[in-house]
User: What shape does this take?
Amino acid sequence: MQPHRSRYWLNTKERDPVLFAEQSGTICDLYAYTPLLQTLGVRIMSCDEMTGIQALERAAPTHEMRAGQPERREFEYIRHGTLSLIANFEVATGQVVAPSLGPTRTEADFAAHIEETIASDPNAVWVFVADQLNTHQSESLVRLVAQQCAISTDLGVKGESGILKSMTSRAAFLSDPTHRIQFVYVPKHSSWLNQVEIWFSILMRRVIKRGNFISVDDLHERILAFIAYFNQTAKPFRWTYTGRPLVV
Assistant: This one.
């Protein structure tokens, strides 16, 4: 027992336990079958954004830890701006693939990121695990998938008709398992099912939390350098959750 400690907990917004079990089970089954799917040329990517990463420079040097004394970091800092990272965590290998770093994470940014990812292996079948953010179910993404999969069906008009009419209709198109590029969505407020979130916590602990960055460019270079370093010894995460409801 450690009564002095506590953790935040995010409860799913999916009120239907049967639907939640079905959705979470799909994600877990996908993780379980990833090694087999990899041999068939299917690449499973856990994808999400880490936004508002601050390039903070400490106003005074950090004092390294010594015997009997912890590291001491200056409380005051200088803000140099922020970056947004869009990352793919490849479930089969544990590597981070085709990361995108920039000042924003707009609909266009996400679609461009997916396009760049696909271009890194144009003959592969791609499955992206993502949350239900609107930019992950956008018109730009539908048009990209239709183009990449040579789908000539009339997509309709956003907000009015056809596949583009609503987020629901767009999500249904993007989730179509017959497409070479497919999105699998985690239940709302269940991002803990997305493995890239685990990797984001590693990045935060090892690079961001204690980092001292003199500029946005410095932050950009440090993140890419860490990804290159991490990928050298990367291993897949050992996923143990099997889709059964968690008991708090």
Summary: The radius of gyration is 20 Å. The first strand starts at residue 42 and ends at 58. The mean pLDDT is 92. The helical segments are 17-32, 34-39, 107-119, 139-148, 167-174, 196-208, 216-232.
